[in-house]
Amino acid sequence: MIAMVGILLSVSGFAGVISSVTRPTIQLPPASTIQVLTNLTASPALNQSVPVVIVIPAPPPRIKSQAEQEEETKRIVAFQKHCAEEGLPGFQYEWGLRCLKGNGVDQDIAEGRKWLKRAADQGHEKARKKLEDLGPPETQRKEPSPVAVEAARQ
Q1: pLDDT digit string (tens) for 98-141?
Q2: What digits encode the pLDDT tens for the residues 24-40?
Q3: What b/e sequence results for 44-67 when a residue is b if at least 16 CB atoms lie within 10 Å of its CB, and e otherwise?
Q4: In the chain, is it the N or the C terminus that has fewer CB atoms within a 10 Å radius of its CB?
Q5: Cα–Cα distance measured from residue 111 to residue 90, given in angstroms and rounded to the nearest whole number
C-alpha cells in the first residue's frame, strides 16, 4: 500500500504542487514524525530549493486480545497491591476501591475499608470522603448492607 502526499510550495510568487512523493505505509514509524526534506527544486526555471515538511500521522493503536487485556489487568493489580503494601496512600486508596468494587479481585468490603482507612490516616482526602460515604462499618453482619454495597460501587 502506497500513501500519496501532495505539498503546495510557494516561492517568490511561484506556486507548484509536488504530488509524486510516495512512501510505503508499511515503513511508517510508530509515532508521528516530521521530516524536513531539503534541496527540492520548486521550479527548474527558478532554480531555487525550499525545505518541505511532511507530517506522517501515527498508526492507530493495536487492539489487544482478551488474553492480553487480562494479563495487563493482572500486572496492574499486582503493582497496585505492592505499592499499597509499601504504604503509598494513593495506591492504598485505589486498592481499597478495587476491593470494594471487586474490580480484578474478589469483592471484600472489609478489606476495602481497611485500605481506605490506611490511606485516610495518612491524609488522603478522597479516602476519608469515601469512608464517610460508606458509613460506619458493619460489625454484626457477615454480609454488607445494601447501602454499603451501593456506596462501594460509586
Answers
A1: 999 998 899 999 999 999 999 999 999 999 999 999 988 765 34
A2: 444 444 444 444 444 45
A3: eeeeeebebeeebeeeeeeeeeee
A4: N
A5: 16
Any idea where the domains of the chain sit in the sequence? 2-56, 66-153
Q: How far apart are CA 83 and CA 93, in angstroms?
A: 11
Mark 101-137 as b/e (b = at least 16 C-beta within 10 Å): beeeeebebebbbebbbbbbeeebebbbebbeebeee
Name which of 92, 87, 98, 86 is nearest 127 in CA terms: 92
Q: Which position has the higher pLDDT, 53 or 55?
A: 55
User: What is the per-residue pLDDT for 112?
Assistant: 94
Tell me if 125 sits within 8 A of 73, measured CB to CB.
no
Task: Report CA Rg, the chain.
Answer: 29
First to last CA, the chain: 48
Question: Which residues, at least 6 apart from 21, have a Cβ–Cβ distance to it below 8 Å?
Answer: 4, 5, 6, 7, 54
